[in-house]
């Protein structure tokens, strides 16, 4: 499009003025709601200099929270990924009754308040429940420990991969899979060699989003964490603690780490996609 | 042996316990040779109590309100019903009170509770529903009004109601309210824990704020208690008890004073620190019939606090 | 490998895609499944491949009933209409796929897989392109990769679903020859689907004409063209003009006029003939008379649109390109070759209606419009 | 895969050759049940402890209703704002080429990744009367942070990617010829956008709107930092849940939760049904 | 409305899609733009519509230069290959669209818009379907909606880009007639694009044959078929067999053998003829001799693949269906109609290479494979 010789106004493009206005609106909007918050986080993080930033990150409690966050993400993201792939396979490759209902259920966690997402596990595993004390009797801690935090995270990030894959796989249909089967491939080989490569970008994208959200979840985790410093505080919770200690620079330093991680993964994903997508 | 203690506390005690824990670890180690790790959990007082109720394995709770510990005792039975009698001063090793924090030079000329409902005055306090400190704020205001209106309940209600109409933001916790007042520069006066107010002066802007002491305030008694159910199970009864008792020791009391808490035994604290606490007339929660009565009357669902927020329209 | 289809039905929910179909395919044959859209061609092909299972009936591979055989073991090469090439694999990888997913014990060594794949790529004339990805190939090239891929597993049966459907007319034509050659060379039993009768006639040993889930006729191209077994076949294969006639007195009559065509039957019938199989009549003997309403050039001949008989039946005939008929108003002619399908009074209306609906309806003998104001005059 | 002869009797799933239905469907449903359904039904069960009358009293409590109104109202408003501006953003990202486009594109997902509390704090910092934007707005007499408008600001931030990410792919697929066809028929650019493009995007917009809104209704972390949290004015429903919890009143908390959950679920279901209907009718997804 | 295209060029970046094209289209004509993929047909059509603007040259509407005219004011009806129907609008809304977006002052009242749209829907035989959405229509029906929609704005010029390209062969054929009728009835100036020569020949008043951004020939169907102006046209339109010959001594020679065809020119040339325009020779006179390598049924005739001459040139000819040639090994024949295009020694190789690349290459006179082991024997 770029090097078209425009002597008449193209009917399918806006006038340069309109285009300018639209871009201005978009940029202004993004600036107000996305970039400036980003700038705030980063500038606050480095308010006291790079040294202070490193100090905040290398604080043992901060490191513990980073470790915990990574651990929780490392458990919940693969689980949700496997679920997402399985659900998308079942939904996209087969016709069965109640599909729309199933899809709605998969969407549901998006619309559940994080407070409730945490609460449901408190109700399920709290001392007042049947399950909690019973598990405790076996020495299994759910609430206020890694399992509870992981469960809450799984709940909140549940739909990301499936949501990304379902429309993609529905669009792609089953012809490739049928071809592979007719060539003698087993179901597993078909998935591995044919389906997976076809959905890799969608999968990657879903996993990245899922991961970013898993590491950033605050509300739900806050309810089930117990906020034990250095033990059950994830990064977002640690940020809150620092903030409440009037240690703003440190709070934003840890926050900037999350932002940085998110940005790097998102940009990386864009870059990879651009290079390898045909 | 190695021990791990979990102290579930409320927001403004972070700095105090950070120091006290180290103190206790060292002294316990010196005394018994045991290694102790002390874990802290901070948050709004009510939320912390709820976590313990839901199974957070706290060895000790050091909360903002007696009511919160009562709730744990009632709902779980993990704390003995007679917990208040176990330690001196109703299990409150330190007390505090509610003061006003105003901006430098006190531009609105606020000197007492009556000034808070003047036109154009904005008051910052957290939400009594979610913040322990805020309940003390509420009771202090109520106490002053009772005195001012000679116990005329409708006038008292009217005053408190007016007061909250001057509150533009109800943060969920004391720390949030402080941040709003200090960092966001919203409001003319912050109703704060005395220790929070001093901390704000120290940490957030030397010279930017002033403390105003009202004519009447309340003696806030943040209590501490052993969670028997948990310590028995974990075998930490002895050390947890020692941990709480240590708060009453000379070291403990001095630390409390240094962190702007009024020690139970002022004579044990550094006199230098004690000079910072202004004299003021304090009522206590017992004047409201104790927390067992005050909590449901004022703060339960449908209580007085909810009533004053009932929309008039 | 002989293929047997015995009383096979297939329903999708309420739609019956196939109704009680039986068909025997002999080893080494090249069979075309020909029929309009929705007639069940793809469904039948997928049933043979094992991509669908029949609602009733059986499919035989040789003497063996195939129902218990999963698709992986059927050894059918299936070429999908839109190729279904693996986009992330090169041509070579696509062609090697079938061999490389074999269980370890029967899988050839890597070098051999590659060699065999290269041979196939060679055979389909794509040498030099083996490192390309499907996106970098033209439609015709992709089609050939799909074929090579299917043949790599040494199938006993090769199934192709509209192999050239998505291609340009020109390319399609070229690939036809080439498919025939491949077939002749390899000797596979081959079944291909098409809705293009020209393709079916040109390519296949035998043509299976399908309609609404049923087989209307099976026969060699010549048979189905020259001796259609049903009106549907006549209409669908080759060009057809049809006239509702009645028979009696040893003659065929159109609207009370004798046509000069002999028949010893009696009753109502449909007369079918092909536009190019007519002779012009100028000796005044009984014949068909048509009002010429349009004339157009068709490669080597001139095609005339006529309105024939008092009913104004639309009919097409071909005349030599330089024939003066193009300049005249009326044409007198007689079919040289024709077919009669008897029909009784009640069915007549229905049949004609069906015939019209089978094709897209365009203004023939309907109301209004300047074109349809001519009243045909009869001799 | 049993390829037995099937009669036309009722079956749960259409037969086919692709393997793995039982495995994937079974796993998906089990996992869904374990992680989502059982916990959620626990919620419903708990609220049922209340009994119907108490439940109704709570659900119809003016405070609850006010909070729900505020939550839904701000969520709707934020979703509307996002719909308008998200559409513009998606348009600009799809139709125009400019340096840094891919970076901007990537950053749109940021709200998914940023901890909501951080988002709330950052937005409060910006929009507070002494903040960068807040101070500027204050000059014009606008107050955003710590007013109901603050809730909307937070929810706009939270919901933005939902709109952009649902509209963007559909917009990318819009056939240029559709626009050209409209132009040859004499439609002005405005007509084309208004009457041809937007109706085509409607299902996607609707989905994005619903998702953004559903997410907004439940949002807690970012909102409490920037809303004033004043009952009847800027107290959101999730905060009310928290308040009920602080009162150790689980039943009441779950009751509010169940009301929110039901409304959200209903909304999602309706949206999914509309989607299915429009797919059937207009032949796109 | 006359249309004039004057020295128009169009480049997309480095690709020249059109190179210095000039063409005059007369009011009321039905013109076909015919050419292989990529030859610039669509680009030319879009230039006329104003959907693209030329890099150089001018487009005239009547006497008026059109460059300054925005597309909305050109009043061209454009029918897109894939219809580009508005899928969220009903058939009626689609057809009404053009009228309903008119500026208020020239917009007919609502009732009238609807009436006019219904008339058009009626004309394209879709009455009863006006409340349907495009997704609920068949391909052919959609095509007709697209046409009705384009005609609703009372265009001066109707442009159609491969109007039937996406349709079934059968449907395509039916719609052709119908388009011709519509054209005759409405009298629009109509330009349509196709790469299907049969369609162009059957439908158009004049055919514009395009190749690589240039016009190779403009003429009536008969002209381009019978008197192709260039080898490209001969190859592209109708079926063509070609042989590299040389001329001299009043004769045409193939590989040193006389062909029995007369020519008074001298030098190298390409001899073109059509498969059906041959005569069989059995009197021993000079002729072409071909080894029969394949035979297949084509509607009314039999098509033979031959290898001719010592070079083994591939050639196709048609013989009567019942001719015994089908059973023989060799065929002796002569073209009845033929065309010579001279070429000089250097170009010869290049030309033939081009010819081959223009189509998909399939195994003709290349290496290996059993089919190509025959050595043609000459008379
Ligand atoms: N998976 C399916 N679900 C429901 N109906 C189907 C399915 N596959 C085919 N059908 C129906 O079965 C009938 C036959 O379809 P089939 O695809 O075999 O036709 P076809 O002859 O291949 O047509 P085409 O030429 O259009 O490809 C049609 O009515 C079709 O709608
Ligand atoms: N928008 C564009 N940008 C770049 N190149 C283009 C564009 N449109 C067409 N071309 C190029 O211009 C040449 C002519 O294209 P055009 O679409 O006119 O061909 P066509 O004759 O319509 O072919 P087809 O039969 O495949 O539709 C081709 O080489 C094509 O790649
Ligand atoms: Mg098919
Ligand atoms: Mg084109
Ligand atoms: O920490 S508070 O409970 O006082 O908010």
TrEMBL record, chain A:
It is a multi-pass membrane protein. Its main location: membrane. Keywords: Cell inner membrane, Cell membrane, Membrane, Sulfate transport, Transmembrane, Transmembrane helix, Transport. Pfam families: BPD_transp_1. It is found in: Cell inner membrane. GO terms for cellular component: plasma membrane. GO terms for molecular function: ABC-type sulfate transporter activity. The chain crosses the membrane at residues 20-42, 62-89, 101-126, 138-162, 203-228, 248-268. Residues 66-269 form the ABC transmembrane type-1 domain. Part of the ABC transporter complex CysAWTP (TC 3.A.1.6.1) involved in sulfate/thiosulfate import. Probably responsible for the translocation of the substrate across the membrane. The complex is composed of two ATP-binding proteins (CysA), two transmembrane proteins (CysT and CysW) and a solute-binding protein (CysP). This is Sulfate transport system permease protein CysW.
TrEMBL record, chains C, E:
GO terms for biological process: quaternary ammonium group transport. It comes from the Bacteria. GO terms for cellular component: ATP-binding cassette (ABC) transporter complex. Keywords: ATP-binding, Cell membrane, Membrane, Nucleotide-binding, Sulfate transport, Translocase, Transport. Residues 3-237 form the ABC transporter domain. GO terms for molecular function: ABC-type sulfate transporter activity; ATP binding; ATP hydrolysis activity. The keyword Cell membrane applies. InterPro entries: AAA+_ATPase (IPR003593), ABC_SmlMolc_Importer (IPR050093), ABC_transporter-like_ATP-bd (IPR003439), ABC_transporter-like_CS (IPR017871), P-loop_NTPase (IPR027417), Sulph_transpt1 (IPR005666), TOBE-like (IPR024765). Belongs to the ABC transporter superfamily. This is Sulfate transport system ATP-binding protein. The lineage of its organism: Bacteria, Pseudomonadati, Pseudomonadota, Alphaproteobacteria, Hyphomicrobiales.
From TrEMBL, chain D:
Signal peptide: none annotated. GO terms for cellular component: plasma membrane. This is Sulfate transport system permease protein CysT. It comes from Cohaesibacter marisflavi. It is a multi-pass membrane protein. The lineage of its organism: Bacteria, Pseudomonadati, Pseudomonadota, Alphaproteobacteria, Hyphomicrobiales. The keyword Transmembrane applies. The complex is composed of two ATP-binding proteins (CysA), two transmembrane proteins (CysT and CysW) and a solute-binding protein (CysP). The chain crosses the membrane at residues 21-45, 65-94, 106-128, 140-164, 196-214, 220-243, 250-274.
């Amino acid at each position: 499009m770029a090097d078209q010789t425009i002597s008449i106004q193209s009917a399918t493009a806006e006038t340069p003025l309109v285009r300018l206005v639209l871009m201005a609106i978009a940029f202004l909007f993004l600036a107000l709601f996305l970039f400036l918050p980003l700038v705030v986080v980063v500038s606050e993080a480095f308010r006291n200099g790079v040294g202070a930033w490193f100090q905040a990150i290398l604080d043992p409690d901060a490191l513990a929270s980073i470790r915990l966050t990574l651990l929780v993400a490392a458990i919940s993201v693969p689980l949700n990924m496997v679920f997402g792939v399985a659900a998308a396979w079942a939904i996209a490759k087969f016709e069965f009754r109640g599909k729309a209902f199933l899809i709605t259920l998969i969407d549901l966690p998006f619309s559940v308040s994080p407070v409730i997402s945490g609460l449901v596990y408190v109700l399920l595993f709290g001392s007042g429940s049947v399950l909690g004390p019973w598990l405790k009797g076996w020495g299994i801690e759910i609430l206020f420990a890694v399992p509870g935090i992981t469960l809450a995270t799984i709940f909140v990030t549940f739909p990301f991969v499936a949501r990304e894959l379902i429309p993609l796989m529905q669009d792609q249909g089953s012809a490739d899979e049928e071809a592979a089967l007719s060539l003698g491939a087993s179901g597993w080989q078909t998935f591995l060699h044919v389906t997976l490569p076809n959905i890799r970008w969608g999968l990657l994208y879903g996993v990245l989003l899922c991961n970013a959200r898993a590491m950033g979840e605050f509300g739900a985790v806050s309810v089930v964490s117990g906020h034990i410093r250095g033990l059950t505080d994830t990064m977002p919770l640690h940020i809150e603690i620092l903030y409440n200690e009037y240690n703003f620079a440190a709070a934003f330093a840890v926050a900037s780490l999350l932002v940085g991680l998110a940005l790097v993964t998102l940009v990386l994903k864009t870059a990879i996609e651009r290079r390898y997508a045909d | 042996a190695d021990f791990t203690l979990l102290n579930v506390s409320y927001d403004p005690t972070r700095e105090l316990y950070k120091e006290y824990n180290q103190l206790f670890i060292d002294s316990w180690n010196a005394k018994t040779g045991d290694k102790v790790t002390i874990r802290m959990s901070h948050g709004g007082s009510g939320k912390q109590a709820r976590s313990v109720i839901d199974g957070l394995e706290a060895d000790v709770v050091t909360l903002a309100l007696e009511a919160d510990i009562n709730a744990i005792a009632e709902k779980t039975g993990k704390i003995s019903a007679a917990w208040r009698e176990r330690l001196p001063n109703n299990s409150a090793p330190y007390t505090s009170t509610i003061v006003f924090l105003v901006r430098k030079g006190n531009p609105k000329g606020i000197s007492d509770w009556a000034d808070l409902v003047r036109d154009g005055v904005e008051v910052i306090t957290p939400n009594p529903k979610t913040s322990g400190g805020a309940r003390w704020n509420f009771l202090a205001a109520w106490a002053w009004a009772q005195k001012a209106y000679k116990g005329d309940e409708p006038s008292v209600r009217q005053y408190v109601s007016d007061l909250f109409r001057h509150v533009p933001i109800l943060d969920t916790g004391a720390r949030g309210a402080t941040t709003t007042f200090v960092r966001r520069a919203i409001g003319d006066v912050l109703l704060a824990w005395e220790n929070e107010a001093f901390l704000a002066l120290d940490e957030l802007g030397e010279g930017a704020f002033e403390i105003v002491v009202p004519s009447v305030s309340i003696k806030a008694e943040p209590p501490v208690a052993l969670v028997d159910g948990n310590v028995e199970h974990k075998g930490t009864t002895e050390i947890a008890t020692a941990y709480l008792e240590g708060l009453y020791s000379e070291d403990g009391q001095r630390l409390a004073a240094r962190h702007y808490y009024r020690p139970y035994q002022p004579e044990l604290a550094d006199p230098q620190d004690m000079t910072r606490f202004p004299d003021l007339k304090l009522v206590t929660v017992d004047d409201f019939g104790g927390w067992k009565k005050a909590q449901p009357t004022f703060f339960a669902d449908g209580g007085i606090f909810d009533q004053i927020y009932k929309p008039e329209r | 490998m002989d293929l047997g289809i015995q009383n096979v039905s297939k329903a999708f929910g309420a739609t019956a895609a196939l109704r009680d179909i039986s068909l025997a395919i002999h080893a080494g044959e090249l069979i075309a499944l020909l029929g309009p859209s929705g007639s069940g061609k793809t469904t039948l092909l997928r049933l043979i491949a094992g991509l669908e299972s029949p609602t009733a009936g059986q499919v035989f591979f040789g003497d063996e009933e195939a129902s218990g055989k999963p698709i992986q073991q059927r050894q059918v090469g299936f070429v999908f209409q839109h190729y279904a090439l693996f986009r992330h694999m090169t041509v070579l990888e696509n062609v090697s796929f079938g061999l490389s997913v074999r269980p370890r014990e029967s899988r050839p060594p890597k070098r051999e897989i590659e060699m065999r794949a290269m041979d196939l790529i060679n055979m389909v004339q794509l040498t030099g392109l083996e490192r390309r990805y499907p996106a970098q190939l033209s439609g015709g090239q992709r089609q050939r990769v799909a074929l090579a891929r299917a043949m790599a597993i040494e199938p006993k049966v090769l199934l192709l679903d509209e192999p050239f459907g998505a291609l340009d007319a020109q390319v399609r034509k070229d690939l036809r020859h080439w498919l025939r050659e491949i077939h002749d060379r390899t000797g596979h039993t081959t079944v291909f689907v098409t809705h293009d009768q020209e393709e079916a006639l040109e390519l296949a040993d035998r043509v299976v004409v399908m309609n609404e889930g049923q087989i209307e006729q099976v026969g060699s191209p010549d048979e189905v063209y020259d001796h259609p077994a049903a009106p549907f076949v006549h209409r669908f294969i080759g060009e057809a003009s049809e006239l509702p006639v009645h028979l009696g007195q040893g003659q065929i009559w159109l609207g009370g006029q004798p046509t000069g065509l002999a028949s010893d039957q009696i009753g109502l019938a449909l007369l079918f003939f092909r536009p190019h199989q007519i002779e012009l009549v100028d000796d005044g003997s009984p014949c068909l008379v048509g009002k010429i309403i349009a004339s157009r050039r068709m490669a080597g001949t001139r095609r005339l649109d006529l309105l024939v008989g008092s009913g104004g039946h639309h009919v097409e005939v071909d005349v030599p390109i330089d024939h003066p008929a193009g300049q005249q108003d009326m044409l007198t002619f007689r079919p040289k070759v024709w077919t009669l399908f008897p029909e009784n009074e009640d069915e007549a209306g229905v049949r004609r209606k069906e015939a019209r609906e089978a094709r897209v309806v365009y203004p023939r003998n309907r109301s209004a419009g300047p074109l349809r104001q001519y009243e045909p005059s009869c001799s | 895969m049993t390829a037995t002869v099937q009669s036309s009797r009722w079956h749960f799933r259409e037969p086919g050759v692709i393997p793995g239905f039982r495995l994937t469907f079974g796993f998906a449903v089990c996992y869904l049940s374990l992680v989502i359904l059982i916990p959620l039904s626990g919620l419903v069960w708990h609220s049922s402890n209340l009994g119907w009358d108490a439940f109704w009293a709570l659900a119809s409590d003016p405070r609850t209703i006010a909070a729900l109104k505020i939550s839904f109202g701000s969520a709707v408003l934020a979703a509307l704002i996002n719909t308008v501006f998200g559409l513009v953003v998606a348009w600009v990202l799809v139709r125009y080429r400019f340096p840094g486009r891919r970076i901007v594109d990537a950053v749109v997902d940021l709200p998914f990744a940023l901890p909501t509390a951080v988002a709330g704090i950052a937005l409060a910092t910006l929009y507070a009367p002494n903040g960068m934007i807040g101070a500027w707005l204050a000059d014009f007499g606008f107050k955003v942070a710590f007013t109901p408008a603050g809730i909307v600001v937070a929810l706009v931030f939270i919901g933005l990617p939902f709109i952009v990410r649902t509209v963007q792919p559909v917009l990318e697929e819009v056939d240029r010829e559709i626009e050209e066809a409209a132009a040859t028929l004499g439609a002005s650019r405005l007509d084309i956008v208004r009457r041809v493009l937007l109706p085509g995007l409607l299902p996607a917009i609707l989905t994005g709107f619903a998702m953004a809104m559903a997410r907004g209704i439940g949002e807690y972390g970012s909102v409490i930092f920037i809303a004033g949290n004043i009952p009847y004015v800027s107290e959101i429903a999730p905060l009310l849940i928290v308040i009920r919890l602080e009162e150790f009143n689980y039943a009441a908390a779950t009751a509010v939760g169940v009301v929110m959950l039901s409304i959200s679920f209903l909304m999602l279901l309706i949206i999914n049904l509309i989607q299915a209907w429009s797919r059937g009718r207009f032949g796109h997804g």
